[in-house]
Design a protein that fits this description.
The complex is a heterotrimer of chains A (187), B (298) and C (138).
Chain A lengths: L6 H8 L16 H5 L10 H9 L3 H5 L12 H5 L6 H15 L8 H15 L4 H4 L9 H16 L13 H11 L7
Chain B lengths: L1 E5 L10 H13 L2 E5 L16 H18 L3 E3 L2 H16 L1 H11 L12 E3 H9 L1 H7 L8 E4 L20 H8 L3 E2 L18 H17 L4 E4 L2 H9 L1 H8 L7 E3 H8 L18 H4 L12
Parallel strand pairs in B: 1-2, 1-3, 3-4, 5-6, 5-7, 7-8
Helix pairs in contact in B: 1-11, 2-3, 2-4, 3-4, 5-6, 8-10
Chain C lengths: L2 E6 L3 H14 L2 E6 L2 H10 L4 E4 L8 H11 L8 E5 L1 H5 L17 E4 L4 H20 L2
Parallel strand pairs in C: 1-2, 1-3, 3-4, 4-5
The chains are: A mainly alpha (187), B alpha/beta (298), C alpha/beta (138).
Chain lengths: 187, 298, 138
């Protein structure tokens, strides 16, 4: 049995149950990067990040903002001539970096995802105002003020909930989660 | 009267309440009842899969299991909810181990999902279930001369489900034509609005919104029609921020397709939740000259 | 007699560390599977005296799926399972301060990463011993 594994294998293992071809099928055609609406904001384009994974550049990949900038629009995925599930790969990299507690400094994505999921396991539904503190202080002054202005206008138009929604069978809901993630919920 | 197991999703409770109101009003006119799913929970948007995909499928499956009990087709108005539910159902049908494990968890809530639920996006109900002819027959105030940019966005079309055309679909245009409007052709109708990035990668998202608005404005759109609450909020509520960031001057109304259908059906704007927009539809489009009752069919 | 162990864990660095601890004892032969799929295949093809199992792998907490599957398999039901998990570090923000409780999975032991070498060897040996006693005297 394999003694140790490459970084590519490590990433493939995250996708062991996924559909689509493994990333070593990549022919570096660049269709993904040309399609990606966010590529210009990424440290490394999707094509590059796949090449870097295949080349075993673990540190550089884990420190890249690429997967945290993925908008999950699946445009690359439907166009990939090698039928690689690139969006699935980006999700897998997000997971891996959260589990390892290893991501590029200054990113809002990881903290925001954590806050979002934490809110859901507590109430069962999304309630926007609870999330604001997880990101608003990372914005610059202009962004902060714009966000506050937006929230105020939404409230005036009656589009912001003032009380968090809660599902009725919350205890059972949490027990369901406790069987998937064996922490909390059952004690 | 045909019934659907209706999953509004978190946004439609408040942020996108006008989508909910207009969906209920217009389906009502078409003899359809949207029966809200009992005690539904969040679909996870894009956040769960970035932490735990099994959890993501489980929380979707909880809603599917509740829908399965009703024996009705599942319908979601939000593209992100729809995509999550659709693919959880696909994965659970294909992967027996996954289904067994998730159902083991659902036992805690006395639920079970065996895969026997058809998952639809709301727009499918109009286009495929009701059909364009039926919709045409209910139009009393055709939106004549109103130039509408049909914005498909991402997750109603992608990822691909079967062999359907995900590059240049036409059903949204056909639906708009059926209510008398003039669908415009613009290159970015399938592009992402950056909805999931507006918080985490704001600069990127605002630039995506700008590109989309520019594309629609270049096509001389009077209004953009959306099929998703995330897209609506992003394209409309962030226009001001786009203008501040890029020195642009956008002022394009962004409505739900159901609101446009409602107007064409002669439902009063108030019942369609209108008045909650950041950018209001020009009164001229609402009344004289364009969608005017005087122009309606005899 | 050399005991044969299987370790299912997705983290090559952690695997290397645990392997060197187990190798230093000189009594174990350790096979490794780095994903759940290969792990289940290995369990079907060879006989093992103990399984060392990670929780967070692949799509999520797949270690739980494996353990449950094992406990339902007549051939593998009796096999001792030692869960070694870093869950508290990995996703503890979801349930801060709450315990990890794989009770419904019926595993034999659970230790948290990072693992104390001495404790690991003790647990491994005692689990194997208990399992053998159970075999002789069910």
């Amino acid at each position: 049995m394999t003694e140790t594994i490459t970084f590519r294998q490590e990433v493939l293992n995250l996708l062991h149950a996924s559909e689509g071809n493994p990333i070593n099928f990549c022919i570096q055609c660049g269709t993904c990067s040309g399609t990606c609406p966010v590529a210009g904001f990424m440290d490394h384009s999707p094509r590059q990040i796949i090449a870097m994974i295949n080349a075993g550049m673990k540190e550089e990949v884990m420190n890249s903002n690429t997967f945290w900038y993925c908008a999950s629009c699946y445009h690359c995925t439907v166009r990939c001539p090698q039928e690689i599930n690139i969006t699935g790969l980006m999700y897998a990299m997000k997971r891996y970096s959260i589990w390892k507690g290893k991501y590029k400094e200054g990113l809002i994505g990881p903290t925001f995802s954590e806050a979002f999921v934490k809110m859901i396991v507590r109430t069962g539904r999304s309630f926007e105002p609870v999330l604001a503190p997880s990101y608003i202080f990372s914005f610059n002054m202009r962004g902060f003020l714009q966000e506050v202005q937006n929230a105020t206008e939404l409230m005036l138009k009656g589009r912001l909930p003032l009380l968090p929604a809660r599902i009725k069978r919350l205890e059972k809901f949490r027990s369901v989660i406790g069987r998937i993630i064996p922490m909390g919920g059952l004690e | 009267m045909k019934e659907y197991a209706y999953y509004p999703g978190c946004s439609l409770e408040k942020m996108a309440v006008s989508y909910h109101l207009s969906a209920v009003e217009t389906t009502g006119k078409l003899g359809i009842k949207l029966k809200e799913l009992e005690d539904w929970s969040c679909c996870g948007a894009t956040a769960y899969s970035g932490i735990d995909e099994l959890l993501s499928h489980t929380l979707s499956a909880r809603n599917l299991a509740i829908a399965e009990k009703t024996g009705l087709d599942f319908v979601a108005p939000c593209s992100a909810c729809y995509k999550n539910m659709y693919f959880t159902a696909v994965h659970m049908r294909k992967d027996a181990d996954l289904a067994e494990h998730i159902n083991f968890a659902l036992e805690e809530d006395n639920l079970h999902f065996s895969g026997n639920v058809t998952v639809r996006h709301l727009i499918e109900v109009y286009v495929n279930e009701v059909g364009l002819e039926e919709i045409k027959s209910k139009v009393t105030r055709p939106l004549e001369g109103v130039r509408v940019a049909p914005y498909y966005g991402c997750q109603i079309m992608r990822p691909r489900k079967d062999h359907e055309d995900v590059e240049q679909p036409q059903f949204f245009e056909e639906l708009l034509a059926a209510i008398g409007a003039m669908p415009i052709n613009y290159p970015l109708k399938m592009r992402c609005c950056g909805g999931s990035l507006i918080i985490s990668s704001r600069t990127a998202a605002l630039s995506m919104v700008r590109n989309l608005l520019q594309s629609a404005v270049d096509g001389q759109a009077d209004v953009i029609a959306t099929t998703c609450p995330m897209c609506q909020v992003n394209l409309e509520c962030y226009q001001q921020q786009v203008n501040q960031e890029f020195g642009t001057n956008f002022s394009v109304p962004v409505l739900y397709f159901t609101q446009l259908i409602g107007l064409a059906f002669g439902i009063t704007p108030k019942k369609l939740g209108m008045g909650k927009e950041f950018v209001a539809l020009a009164p001229s489009l609402l009344a004289a000259g364009k969608a005017n009752p005087a122009h309606s069919k005899p | 007699m050399t005991k044969r162990l299987l370790m299912i864990d997705d983290d090559p660095d952690f695997v290397a560390g645990i392997k060197s601890i187990l190798d230093s004892a000189g009594e174990f032969e350790v096979d490794v599977a780095y994903n759940p799929k290969d792990g289940l295949k290995a369990l079907q093809t060879r006989e093992y005296d103990l399984l060392l199992l990670d929780i967070m792998m692949g799509r999520g907490a797949e270690g739980v799926m494996i353990a449950r599957k094992l406990r339902k398999d007549p051939k593998l039901r009796e096999m001792p399972v030692l869960i070694i998990t870093g869950m508290r570090e990995q996703i503890a923000f979801l349930f801060p301060g709450e315990p990890i409780h794989p009770r419904f999975v019926e595993v034999d032991e659970l230790v948290e990463k990072p693992v104390e070498p001495k404790l690991l060897l003790e647990k491994v040996k005692s689990l194997i011993k208990t399992a053998e006693a159970r075999k002789v005297n069910p």
